[in-house]
Amino acid sequence: MTAPGRRSSTFTRLLRHGFTDPSAAERLLDAVELAAVRDDPVLLEALGATADPDLALHGLVRLLEAQPDPTARRELLDTLIAAKPLRDRLLGVLGASEALADHLARHAGDWRALVTYEPRDLHRGVEDFERGLAEADDPVSLRVAYRRCLLSIAARDVCGTIDVAETAAELADLATATLRAALALAEAAAPEDAALCRLAVIAMGKCGGHELNYVSDVDVIFVGEAVEGADEPKALRAATALASHLMRICSETTVEGSIWPVDANLRPEGRNGPLVRTLSSHLAYYQRWAKTWEFQALLKARPVAGDPGLGAEYVAALQPLVWQAADRENFVPDVQKMRRRVVENIPAAEVDRQLKLGPGGLRDVEFAVQLLQLVHGRADTSLHSGTTLDALEALAAGGYVGRADAAQLDEAYRFLRSMEHRIQLHRLRRTHLVPEDEADLRRLGRSLGLRTDPVAGLLRAWKRHASVVRRLHEKLFYRPLLDAVAQLAPGEARLSAEAARERMVALGYADPAAALRHLEALASGVTRKAAIQRTLLPVLLGWFADSADPDAGLLNFRKVSDALGKTPWYLRLLRDEGAAAENLARVLSAGRLAPDLLMRAPEAVALLGDGNAGGLAPRGRAQLEQETLAAVRRADGAVQAVAAVRGVRRRELFRTAAADIVGSYGTEAQPVEADQGALVDRVGAAVSDLTAATLAGTLRAVVREGWGDTLPTRFAIIGMGRFGGHELGYGSDADVLFVHEPRDGADEREAADAANKVVSEMRRLLQVPSADPPLLIDADLRPEGKSGPLVRTLKSYEAYYRRWSLVWERHALLRAECVAGDEDLGRRFIELVDPLRYPAGGLDDDAVREIRRLKARMESERLPRGADPKLHAKLGPGGLSDVEWTVQLMQLRHGHEEAGLRTTRTRAALAAACEAGLISTENATTLDEAWVLATRVRNAVMLVRGRAGDTFPTDPRELAAVGRYLGHGPGHAGDMLDEYRRTARRARAVVDELFYS
After folding, report:
1. Helix/strand/coil (H/E/C) assignment for every residue in 614-657
2. Per the confidence metrics, is the pTM higher than 0.85?
3. What single string gives the DSSP state of each residue in 81-124?
4. How far apart are CA 103 and CA 214, in angstroms?
5. Residue 466: left (phi > 0), alpha (psi -120 to 50), or beta?
6. Which DSSP string corresponds to 137-155?
7. Each residue's pLDDT tens digit, 223-272
8. CA max distance for the chain
């Protein structure tokens, strides 16, 4: 007897073996039914190995109590102790399923179904289950036989004899056998109906896909035909009566409960349609009226019961329609919309516990796999599987899904399905919610092999797998590649040479023969690389064709692929990152500049992926300067250092150009940027920041090589013109002034020589011929222009501006901003020129007349000979010069009084002038729109031609490409020119009113 206050040794052993209520377990072990084995260590070890030892012990006692006599009880106990297979199976089921324990308590002899342990018993099929159900002669006995078969599946499942996929397949086979038995009962009850018709039962959903749950609706479709000589309407009524009876046999609740609901709502017209149709009626519906989701559902269609010939005819007739579904208009958006609708309809309180429907749940995997099957299965019959995991394996084998992604999805799907099975097995209830009760979570975790802290381990594993599914589902399901592939003619997902030629001619490729050679080089062969290219090319061809020069796009794609095709990440990026392929297609076919920049360093294509940390977002000046200075520190000498700096500049120019193109063209995932001014500002700021960082790095490299850490003079670079205004375009020179100030104790001549050498060397190194574009430094806006010294001291600038400065120089200083070098010196230079550019009292009349005279002279003398003034974006009426001089005149006149006008940026100054009441909102909007459009024209010309220009191209293809960049579709170049003339004409009217009047 145990002393008061002390726990018995049995109590301690029970705790150690995982019992949560040792006191109750002790009482159960003391039951008379267990007297013979109470002290047997084998029993306690076996109970401790179950998911819920308390539940297993309780179920065992109930089963022993249910035995009809002591002999039967002894037989059970002797077999339990002596036969490990039975022990593991029986206790495993009792510890995992309260519902099956109830069944065993009602049918005390069914435990013998678990004794058999033969090789054929390890993986049972439809025929085995049909034998198990053969003696059922009414709905009640069918339920008992069904539970007995289910018991054998559950036992092998919880013991790990079969995995989750095999379990799901066996559950589907058991459902098949049950439907056949139920139909046989219905036919036996109405032989006259059976004699009139042929009836086939088509399994759909998880049953059709051979991946059923323990408790699930069994989705079916019924197809019927009259036997020869029978009246068709009468035969269909007979078939409907048989189908209805079959459904009741399975679904209705009896003293033995129900089996599962049979759901026929996936039939044509759903609940509103007839329960049974003829094959021709099914075919007519799907050809004329079926929605996209109905074809998706047919992926799982499988004849399982009734007339096998009719079932085979049904599948043969409808399967071709399944693989044509991707040709339907808005196919991919329809499927995506349906998935989103499912998520939106989940009650808020359940969304975080949903294993099936929630984000990162089972349905995400199934929808993604089905969508990929429907899109690519038209040309690849290896994808024609109704089973999710088999289809996923085929997708990976065909190169449609990355192997690593497929492996992660497979692992996550198996884990989530295992959770779902164990949750449903407990009470045999249809649920997909993760329980909240601690005991339920503990049992669930232990059933999945998590024995150390099972609750925490379960929740961690669940969240990890759900996160994997959510991430990969978004990559696979929502990648826009599929939408474009789905619009292709059947057979083109894997291009034949003839199909490619026809496709290119139809899409307007100017040189189909050359394009075909590129395609053959890219897509021929049996390698994984070629398979992926064949998947991508139909999509890319369509995107190239959406540009003004598809031939150039395809040629450039071949060049990039030749350069990067052997790198493991390149094709994976294009296939798996939703934005990368379309971004690349847009960039390669939009003109010469971006492809030229990319060809010089093709690895920059990685910037186009939506998973890239940097992506196409512009980098700030501080970040760029940090990178260039770091490159200078690592380099061996100024030449190598500046080459590295120029490499950074080339990469960042590509980033900026690519972002500009994508924002202007728009993609499936990212519509066209609505705010064209924002696009212009981003380009101007990005190129200006990049130029400043390039100059900063080059300055550091030159100083380090010639003078070590310290130059004998302080040195600053002042940005002027568009550079100082943060408005540089792709082809702009860097307008600058150079200012220096000898250090204390330094010789002034030596300091001046050093400053001039720095400037000379910077200009040389930035223009050395190389694969990287040069950066031209223009210092012509310095005092005295080209006649004046290239570098001046701060005092020299001060003396000059005090005595000699002209109106045009004050005007030019409106854009002055320190961009590199000594910050304190740059700040003092800006303080020096502020009174000149924002004079107290504004400008006198003579100065205003001089500015107007200079503007008129520039218009007449600098406009290129033969150019159409109305289409010249810089010097023409309503162009950049008109807008900028108008804004700058307001700055010179009112900048001293209005702080908002003291900015180097045109659009900011114009907005400040409007806010100050110096210009009406209507006129400010007119000028702003003209300035933005003219700037975009110049950017477009540089992107398309690869060289700077201020006028629209004359070549039709180049003009069309500029039009596409500006938002005008094919054949609308004339509309683009008309729009520019109208915009410029309105702006010129404002300029005449504000500048010249």
Report:
1. CCCCCCCHHHHHHHHHHHHHHCCCHHHHHHHHHHHHHHHHHHHH
2. no
3. HH-HHHHHHHHHHHHH-HHHHHHHHHSTTGGGGGT---HHHHS-
4. 15
5. alpha
6. -SHHHHHHHHHHHHHHHHH
7. 999 999 999 999 999 999 999 999 999 999 999 999 999 999 999 999 99
8. 125
